[in-house]
Design a protein that fits this description.
The complex is a heterodimer. Chain A is globular, with a radius of gyration of 21 Å. Chain A contains 14 helices and twelve strands. Chain A has helices at about 5-20, 20-30, 75-95, 115-130, 145-160, 185-200, 215-230, 250-260, 275-280, 320-325, 335, 340-355, 360-385, 390-410, and strands at about 35-40, 50-55, 65-70, 100-105, 135-140, 210-215, 230-240, 240-245, 270-275, 285-290, 305-310, 330. Chain B has helices at about 5-15, 20-30, 80-85, 105-115, 120-165; strands at about 30-35, 40, 50-55, 60, 70-75, 75-80, 95, 100-105. In chain B, the strands form two sheets. In chain B, strands 1-8-3-6 form a four-stranded antiparallel beta sheet. In chain B, strands 2-7-4-5 form a four-stranded antiparallel beta sheet, with no helix packed on it. The chains are: A alpha/beta, B alpha+beta.
Chain lengths: ~400, ~170
């Protein structure tokens, strides 16, 4: 993952527009704190397993730091730093009172039993509990971590510091989680799209065609919301391949099929399509909702969608992004489009601190308000400064972080 | 370039105030050297050959490591004066930007003349002192300019940016 370079590329592009000096740029890019810890546990077979855990805290000028914890063999300080800075800009774009952080453990959890995974998680909390906390740094689920892992983190942190549900978000709804959190990223992406369509005079989602790459949490919820609004989802794919139907797929049935078969492939009444070909379909909106780096300088010239809704993180490489801008294809960027997840994480944290549970309607209405307000600001910058939505997002974010930093006193 | 044209340039650069005989003494001690465009005339850290009078062409003075060009110098001029007088290795590299012709007064020859208490050689030193004084003067001015500009302009830039954050970049 070249996340850090990509983030820095877009950051620098905005920095050039804003005429940032090298010194200011360096200050904004440099992380607040990087931590690397030993996470050793006794494995089920009695042997000792030693893993390395990381937490990078990028910026805390706007509030406690927020960002996911991932369990993946490629996790290291570099990757965590790139993603932590992305969280700083993302939380600033949707104006949440947070800074950015990211971390995880370099481990393949598929090789661990549930017991080992729990011990690993609790040990990790023991190693980093002094630097996380409801008013310091609030982890969340990420690659290969889920609500159960968050529950363990909450429990272990609470053993050390007393009852602290707000130390982590993405918890199970039964254990201080928020209603609407699971669907939040997909729902936020659809809100983002609605704002853009309305603002640019392109009407509504109903009747428009969509191709969705990736049908995990984000892709499947986005697909369901698009379908509910009358959008024609004509192709979707997962790691095993894709399915298409020019008349539109029945998304709820497709989700049921996927639950049963563990893949979207073989869905009755559809034709197969490869992941690569899906990206090139002549649809109104292409929704990359899986991996990063899928739209590249290799395939960008063949992309025939009119709009790209970046539900995944960094699906477009900087080279491809330039090419899309040149071709007049609008890209709604990841740091805005998929900010719904962290926004509802913020609501979960707020509910935990209030000790008051919101109804799902309130969660969704507040999410809608945040996505709408953020869009209004971005659209203004796009118009006034003649920049892309992505550059506008970074300009807004850098401005907010910069002001907070200056007001606190550099 | 004919030998007489070369002599004329050397006279102008290195032998002002020397008598005819003294000038002949210096000229006789010099040898012609050429450098093709893009090639190194001498390299930083190398033992110097001697004092070089650039007769024709343009050279670049480069400080190794940074790779930055310190100066671009056109003929006619003198090169290698520092290492000639300090008797140490070259303090910078010189590369021919275009095809260049030089007259070289080797260190050996120069120090031989000094040992013989050649008045011509001492007069050359006086001329080199003037060249060095002029170059030092230019360096002083540059230093004053750099030291005056850097901190304050950076502070001004930063102050301006801080203000812009609240005016221009507040949405």
């Amino acid at each position: 993952m070249s996340g850090f370079e990509d983030v820095n590329y877009y950051f620098r592009k905005a920095a050039r527009v804003m005429d940032l000096s090298v010194a200011v740029e360096r200050m904004l890019v440099t992380p607040y704190r990087e931590v690397k810890v030993d996470v050793s546990i006794t494995l089920d077979n009695g042997e000792l397993g030693t893993f390395i855990g990381y937490r990078v805290q990028h910026d805390r000028s706007r509030g406690p730091m927020k960002g996911g914890l991932r369990y993946h063999p490629t996790v290291d300080l570099d990757e965590a730093l790139g993603l932590a800075s992305l969280m700083t800009w993302k939380t600033a774009v949707v104006n949440l009172p947070y800074g950015g952080a990211k971390g995880g453990i370099a481990v393949d959890p598929k090789n661990l039993s549930p017991g080992e995974l729990e011990r690993l998680t609790r040990k990790f909390v023991q190693q980093i509990h002094e630097i996380i906390g409801p008013q310091a740094d609030i982890p969340a689920p990420d690659v290969n971590t889920n609500a159960q892992v968050m529950a363990w983190i909450m429990d272990e942190y609470s053993r050390l510091h007393g009852f602290s549900p707000a130390v982590v978000t993405g918890k199970p709804v039964e254990l201080f989680g928020s209603r609407g959190r699971e669907e939040a990223t997909g729902r936020g992406a659809v809100f983002a799209l609605e704002e853009y369509l309305r603002d640019s005079g392109q009407g509504e989602i109903g009747g428009k065609t969509f191709a969705i790459q990736g049908f995990g949490n984000v892709g499947s919820w986005a697909g369901r919301f698009l379908h509910e609004r009358g959008g024609k989802v004509i192709a979707v794919s997962d790691v095993k391949g894709g399915v298409q139907n020019p008349e539109g797929l029945d998304v709820p049935r497709l989700i049921a099929h996927q639950k049963q078969q563990n893949t979207v492939t073989g869905f009755p009444g559809s034709d197969p399509i490869s992941n690569d070909d899906l990206l090139l379909l002549p649809v109104d909106v292409l929704v990359p909702a899986a991996l990063g780096g899928v739209i590249t300088d290799m395939n960008v010239k063949d992309v025939r969608a009119r709009l790209i809704l970046e539900a995944a993180n960094a699906p477009t490489t900087p080279e491809a992004d330039e090419a899309l801008v040149k071709r007049g294809i609008t890209v709604l960027p990841d740091i805005y489009v998929n900010a719904g997840g962290v926004t509802v994480s913020y609501f979960e944290w707020a509910q935990n601190i209030q000790q008051f549970t919101w109804e799902e309607d309130k969660v969704n209405a507040e999410l809608h308000r945040h996505m709408r307000d953020a869009y209004a600001t971005l659209a203004r910058v796009v118009r006034e400064r003649k920049v892309s939505f992505r550059t506008a997002a970074f300009i807004v974010a850098i401005g907010r972080v910069g002001r907070a930093t200056v007001l606190r006193g550099v | 370039m004919t030998p007489s044209e070369a002599s004329k340039i050397v006279r102008g650069v290195l032998c002002r105030g020397l008598s005819y005989e003294q000038t002949e003494q210096i000229l006789k001690a010099m040898v012609p050297v050429g450098a093709e465009a893009g090639t190194a005339v001498f390299k930083e850290g190398e033992r110097p050959q001697g004092l070089m009078v650039l007769l024709e062409g343009t050279v670049e003075v480069i400080k190794e490591g940074g790779g930055e060009t310190l100066a671009t110098i056109d003929a006619p001029t003198v090169l290698g004066e520092i290492s000639l007088l300090m008797e140490g290795p070259h303090t910078a590299s010189v590369r021919a930007k275009t095809a260049c012709e030089f007259s070289l007064l080797t260190s050996t020859q120069f120090h031989r003349l000094l040992r013989e208490e050649s008045l011509a050689a001492y007069k050359v030193i006086a001329i080199l002192a003037e060249v060095l004084a002029r170059r030092l003067n230019r360096m002083d001015e540059k230093f004053v300019e750099v030291s005056r500009k850097t901190p304050s302009t950076h502070v001004e830039e930063l102050t301006a940016f801080k203000q812009k954050l609240f005016t221009e970049w507040s949405f």
